[in-house]
Amino acid sequence: MNSILRHLTPPTIRFVVLFLSYLTVLVAATVQLLAARELIAFLFYASFLFFVLVPPRVPLLRTKGHPTRTPEWWYTALAILGLLLLLGSRIVPFLRYGATPLGYDTGFYWEYFNLIVPAQTIGTAVGSHLAYATWFPLAALGLGAIETITLLHLVHQLLTAGALYLLLATIVPRRIAHRVAACSVFLFAVSTIQFSAFWWIFYKQSQALPFFLFALALFFRRSWLALPIAVFATSIHLPTAIPLAGGFALYVLLAIVTPIVRRQRIPRDVLLLAVSGIVALVAVVLIRSPDEIKGYIEVLLQYRGFATAAQSWEIDRFKGLFLPFAVARIAALYYLPFAFIGLLRGVRMLPIWRNGRRAMSPPDLLITAFAVLFLLVSFPFLHQHRSLILFDVLLLVLAAPSLAWFMEQYGSRGKIERVTIGLLLFGMTFSLAFIVWNQKPQLYADEAAELAQLHPRNDPEHHIRDGEHNYVMVTSSLYTPWAYAYTGFDRTIAPGWLRWDLWDLPQWTTFWTTKDDAKRLDLLRMYGDSTIYIFVGRHVLEQATGSPMITFLETSPYIVQFSPHIWKYSQYADLWGGGIPDAYAP
Fold this sequence. Notes:
Oligomer: single chain
Shape: globular
Largest sheet: 5 strands, mixed
Number of strands: 5
Number of domains: 3
């Protein structure tokens, strides 16, 4: 007993408390997501990393003496591998599913392109003028809407990888900068959260993100260029800037209040930061226009900041139409322990009011931003799910130094340890490959061809879309932008979207679920003598096969099947021909 007590020195006690705190946080983050066996395996993995990276009797933050036994070229190869994985994972969906394999907003950006490029002006209808400025030179080279949007969307991913490299190379010691920065590029490439953000084609957010990271790196380099680049990024996508601005404002506030409480002089560079923030805010208001900023504020006040204050069917849209927090936590399991250890190292460098510390310290600002984003993604605030993209980027920033140190510390021990590192990197790569390969498109190529058949240019004799009273209808909002784009951006009926929808939610619910076909016909007759082409995509058919709505489409005398996923409705029973046209016949 006495021998045990002799070993309970203050460093040992601190180590045990730190380890238990580490496990407690990881259990709290994953216990509701993983089965018992999976949770135990994950905790063994996390514990192994902890004992390698934070051995007993070694300070948590070691600023000197980082081993650098692994050759520099190995990290260069890791960065190149990351770039290859980044390109491959983003290109594979196009190779498998055609020109439009990405997510929901593709159709709307397609519409914006066709609105502004022929007019040679952006105007006010689509907003975010700077976000679309790069379309014009590519359109002048002869690229179409999909080619332009896709190419630039891919460029934004490469820019983000480059910005992460610059940021990590800035905030870590120069002698290990390349090693840590290379790890950040690899982690970004294998992050399934970042792939999902690409797949959902959050075009403006993915365009603004690298410029925010560039601005942050320049900020830590004390360059005046950080201010105009941050303003530029904010002008592209204001919702991305709001949580980052919140972290910056909290950081500046703490840096001002702390010396006041201590009765000390406020550092000059802190005052400069506060003035710079005010200048940036004024510049953004002038660029985006006061009315637009006022609109954001009104929405924020209307819903008191919470998406759950909206109508039930609007909650997902106000949260940001992206991965839930639970799914994101599962996707980040590989690098979550690395990130948390990196967070502990950063916290060890706090508080920001430590005597002799510079006001522009990377750990101070990054951890403050992390705290703000963690709050925003943990509760149903407006834009909660879209904030996960930024939160994941900060996880990668925190994880990269720990991963680099792990490869140095553990990989230098022998061949088996290097094989273990290789298996870890392979596991991350395999996880990404599995997600990419199994990511189905929202609209398959054959469905796109069916919708395109309804476009007037594909029907020279105007048998399909002739007359101003013909409509295209989608029975799920999932297909709204696709039908809108492929059929010529005209007269698309969609649940809760676009101006041609005459039904409220109870009426749509009746159309989806009622067993009374007479009620469905009454709803369709609200569109007068119009012909309505009703599109039911594969995702809906897989879930609704045998449902009353599908039975109605297949049996009603007022409806004939136009193609495998499109039914043609007319209030007159003398529909032309009946049956599937020869072009779509099996």
